[in-house]
Amino acid sequence: MKTMQTRRLLLRPWCMEDLEDFYAYAKDPEIGPNAGWKPHCSMDESREILKNFVGNGEVSAVVLKETGKVVGSLGLHSDRLFHEGEGSCREVGYVLSRSCWGKGLMTEAVRRAERYAFEEMRLDFLSVAHFPFNARSRRVIEKCGFRYEKTLAGSYTDYRGVKLDEVCYLMTRGGYEDLERKRFRAAGLTREHAEEICSWRYDGPYAVYNSFPWEEVCARGWAMADDDKRKSEFYAVQDERGELCGFFRFFSRDGALLLGLGVRPDLCGLGYGRRIMGLVLREFFFRYPGRDLELEVRSFNRRAVSCYRSAGFLETVRYRRETPLGEDEFVRMRFSGGEEA
User: Fold this and answer.
1) Looking at the domain that runs over 184-335, which CATH code has it been given?
2) Fold (topology level) of 4-181
3) I want to staple 273 with a disulfide (CB 3.0 to 4.6 A). Which of 101, 288, 292, 307 is the partner?
């Protein structure tokens, strides 16, 4: 797998420098048996196993961004759960350090792997299995949207030579796409949401998107601070937990319908743009059927320009204009309305 990020994790290739972190969780007697392998007895044993991971494109190290520490592994392996002839399929496998249990980290990692598998590898299916006694793994699998398929009796022989049942689950491409459409939802933007947005801080060149403090936004009379405009023009983008992930706005200017959009800083660059734009366009088709939709974006922000192009927006003109931070170049883009794709 390629190097990938989530909000809290980095998924990257293994290297021999990961040995100490690997051994730290692989020696735990609560870890290996849940996945069918024996706890590691020594650093040397972990070293020999790690050599098999290094250069293996099927398995990635799971790294906690906050500490840089390897806390687990995640793989997309050749499917062994009997789906031959049904289409392209990989089997998900994962292990997580006990210190990270109960925090939703592996759910986060597996969801990123799902996106890679279906959107980049273009797989038809993903399979996964757990032993009947591994309730934690079952919860991860269910949270990630897999559906129960079958139980294979005595199909896995563990390190003790004991035959174990495997509870098997499957995700289809269509099932994944349905889940992604439901992952974000639009809601009314509240004052609390607006205050939170004003506290978001972007890094590097993206710092131009940092807002003034809420009090100054109110003093300047900006639309987000106006109760009527906030209720009629702005929408919150929320995930399934109700957390604010972004916002968008439909508003009129000089006879054109314009789109304004923002994504929470820690979610930028993680591939969520396509899904959020899908949500935005669904609202657009519902509320403004037959209209065209325009937006402007700073020309340096190639990531955003690419996302808008993928959603169907076309560049119409480039120009320079003044902003509260000085003059900058912008790209104007238009989406032609009509029937929803």
Assistant:
1) 3.40.630.30
2) Aminopeptidase (3.40.630)
3) 307
